[in-house]
Specification:
The chain is α/β, with parallel strands linked by helices. It folds into 2 domains: about 1-35; about 45-280, Glycoside hydrolase/deacetylase (TIM Barrel), CATH 3.20.20.370. The protein has helices spanning about 1-35, 45-50, 75-85, 95-100, 120-130, 165-175, 195-210, 225-235, 270-280, and strands at about 50-55, 55-60, 70, 90, 110-115, 140, 175-180, 215-220, 240-245, 260. Strands 1, 4, 5, 6, 7, 8, 9 and 10 form an 8-stranded parallel sheet that branches. The protein has a two-stranded parallel sheet with strand order 2-3. Strand 4 (about 90), helix 4 (about 95-100) and strand 5 (about 110-115) form a beta-alpha-beta unit. The chain is globular. Bound molecules: zinc ion. The site of zinc ion has 5 residues, from strand 5.
Length: about 290
C-alpha cells in the first residue's frame, strides 16, 4: 500500500512535466504555423487579381457528403473570421467585372464567396455566419431542383435537400446574389448546342420568375465549358460566369470564364490561408479550356 502511495507521489511531478511539455509543443506548433503564413500582398498585387472562393456544402453531418464538397460549419466560421480580421471585403461578381471593365472602385482586399448547386445547408449553416460579418456571397442554383433534392448527382452523392424559394428569397433580400447553374446540372460540353442554350436560358428565366429579380451570373456544372458555351452565356444576358479552373480573377480576363479558388472541407486554417494567398504570388500554369471536375 505504502509503495503505491509513493509511486503516486513520485509520478505527480512527472505528469506535470508531461502536461507542460505538451503545452510547449502546442505553442511551438502554433508559432511555426504563424511564421509560415505568407505575407499579405502589397496593393499592386491586389490590383492584379481577386480571389473568388468556391464552396459547395457547409454542413456538420458527414452523412451529407465527403470533405471534397462539404466544409464543416466550424471551419467555415473560422475562415470567415480570418477574412474579416484581415481586412477582406466581400464583393459580388458583377462588382468585379465592373471594376475590371469600367474602373468601378472596390473596397480594399476584395474577395468573392461563391457556393455551387444551392444546397439548403447554405441557408441553415453558412448564411448565419455570413450575416455575422455582414458578408455577401453568390449561390449558383440548379434551377430545376429548387426545394427538392440533389437528383443531379444522387448516384454518386448522398441525398441532400436543396434550398427552396422561401430561403432563396430571404437570402436575396439580405444581399446574397443568386446565380444560375443550369436546369439539371448536365455536362454542357457533352450536349447539342440547342440543349445547352435551353439549359443556360431557361434556368435564368425560372430563377428570375421565382425571385422577382434579375439573375446575371452563371456557373458551369463540373466546370465544363468551352468558348462556344461562354458565348452562349453572354448572348443569354449574363454579365459573368465562373469555372473551376484554379486562380484569381484578373483584369483582362474573359468575364465568362473566370477562375476560382477551391476550398475543401479537409483544409485546416494554414491550408486555407495558403490557398487564399498563393495565386497572388505564383501565376497558375495555363489550363486548357474544358475545365475540370466539380
Ligand atoms: Zn455543381
Amino acid at each position: 500500500m505504502k509503495i503505491r502511495i509513493l509511486i503516486a507521489i513520485l509520478s505527480l511531478p512527472l505528469l506535470f512535466l508531461l502536461v507542460l511539455g505538451g503545452t510547449r509543443y502546442a505553442a511551438d506548433c502554433l508559432a511555426r504555423a504563424q511564421s509560415v503564413t505568407p505575407p499579405f500582398p502589397s496593393p499592386e498585387f491586389q490590383q492584379r487579381g481577386i480571389p473568388i472562393l468556391m464552396y459547395h456544402k457547409v454542413n456538420p453531418d458527414p452523412r451529407s457528403g465527403g470533405l471534397g464538397l462539404r466544409v464543416p460549419p466550424y471551419k467555415f466560421a473560422r475562415q470567415m473570421e480570418y477574412l474579416a480580421a484581415h481586412g477582406f471585403h466581400t464583393v459580388s461578381l458583377v462588382d468585379v467585372v465592373d471594376h475590371f471593365q469600367k474602373g468601378k472602385p472596390l473596397p480594399s482586399r476584395p474577395v468573392v464567396i461563391t457556393f455551387d448547386d444551392g444546397y439548403l445547408d447554405n441557408y441553415t449553416y453558412a448564411f448565419p455566419i455570413l450575416k455575422r460579418h455582414r458578408f455577401t456571397a453568390t449561390i449558383f442554383v440548379v434551377a430545376g431542383t429548387v426545394g427538392k433534392t440533389n437528383v443531379f448527382d444522387a448516384r454518386v452523392q448522398p441525398v441532400n435537400r436543396m434550398a427552396g424559394w422561401r430561403e432563396l428569397r430571404e437570402m436575396a433580400a439580405y444581399g446574397i446574389t443568386i446565380g444560375a447553374h443550369t436546369l439539371d446540372h448536365p455536362r454542357l460540353t457533352g450536349l447539342p448546342l440547342e440543349e445547352a442554350r435551353r439549359q443556360i436560358r431557361e434556368s435564368k428565366a425560372i430563377l428570375e420568375a421565382g425571385l422577382g429579380r434579375p439573375v446575371e451570373v452563371f456557373s458551369y456544372p463540373y466546370g465544363r465549358y468551352n468558348l462556344k458555351l461562354a458565348r452562349l452565356v453572354k448572348e443569354s444576358g449574363y454579365r459573368a460566369a465562373v469555372t473551376t479552373v484554379q486562380g484569381l480573377a484578373r483584369p483582362g480576363d474573359d468575364p465568362y470564364t473566370l477562375k476560382r479558388v477551391r476550398v475543401m472541407g479537409s483544409y485546416n486554417m494554414q491550408k486555407f490561408i495558403t490557398e487564399l494567398l498563393k495565386y497572388y504570388y505564383y501565376p497558375p500554369a495555363p489550363v486548357a479550356a474544358g475545365g475540370r471536375r466539380y
